[in-house]
Amino acid sequence: MVQIEGDLQAANLKIAFVVARFNEFICEHLLEGALDSFVRHGGNKDDVTVIRVPGAFELPLAAKRIAMNGKNDAVVCLGAVIRGETSHYDYVCANASSGIASASLETGVPVSFGLLTTDTIEQAIQRSGAKAGNQGRDATDCAIEMARLLKQISEA
Ligand code: INI
């Protein structure tokens, strides 16, 4: 029996973070958690590219374009859509989430979902490094694992 599973070793991985500026206070905390995850798992800051986009709606296109350049093992999308602040919450969330999934499937590069979708700003704060973890860190853990998994599948 062959079992293949990714690990969390980020050494020698190249990674790109695509970060929304909308709700910047939250997104910068997501980025802090994401960078911390990458470095703690052995990644090198010289192997990191940070790309900023206006809002969550713009994450998929930038993620797809950076994934297409073939220089990164994984891409992490970071953003926060807060229901209280927008009447088009559902459209932004739906397009961002399906676009991020498409970017990954169409390029073959792991593109992980570090997008908070919350009802209130308090929930967003809690999930960006306060009480309820950090979605940026979790999405980076997933991106590292998927990048390592794809390498192992290629070698199997
Ligand atoms: N973008 C976000 O990232 N989060 C939000 O909460 C948000 N709200 O509230 O509207 C938001 N809107 C902007 C959107 O992502 C696009 O940048 C804009 O519609 C231009 O395409």
Task: Say what the CATH topology is.
Answer: Rossmann fold
Compute the CA-based radius of gyration: 15 Å
CATH 4th-level superfamily: Lumazine/riboflavin synthase
Global geometry = globular
Between the first and last Cα atoms, what is the distance in angstroms? 12 Å
Number of domains: 1
Strand order of the largest sheet: 2-1-3-4
Q: What top-tier CATH class fits best?
A: Alpha Beta
The number of distinct helices, counting runs of at least 4 residues, comes to 5
How does this structure look, described?
The structure is a single chain. The chain has 156 residues and is an alpha/beta fold. It has a single domain, classed as Rossmann fold (3-Layer(aba) Sandwich). It contains five helices and four strands. It has helices spanning 24-40, 59-68, 89-107, 121-126, 135-155; strands at 15-20, 48-53, 74-82, 111-118. Strands 2-1-3-4 form a four-stranded parallel beta sheet, sandwiched between helices. β1, α1 and β2 form a beta-alpha-beta unit. α1 (24-40) packs across α5 and α2 (59-68) runs parallel beside α3 (89-107). The chain is globular, with a radius of gyration of 15 Å. The relative contact order is 0.23. Bound molecules: 5-nitro-6-ribityl-amino-2,4(1H,3H)-pyrimidinedione. The site of 5-nitro-6-ribityl-amino-2,4(1H,3H)-pyrimidinedione (INI) has 15 residues, from β3. 5-nitro-6-ribityl-amino-2,4(1H,3H)-pyrimidinedione (INI) binds next to β3.
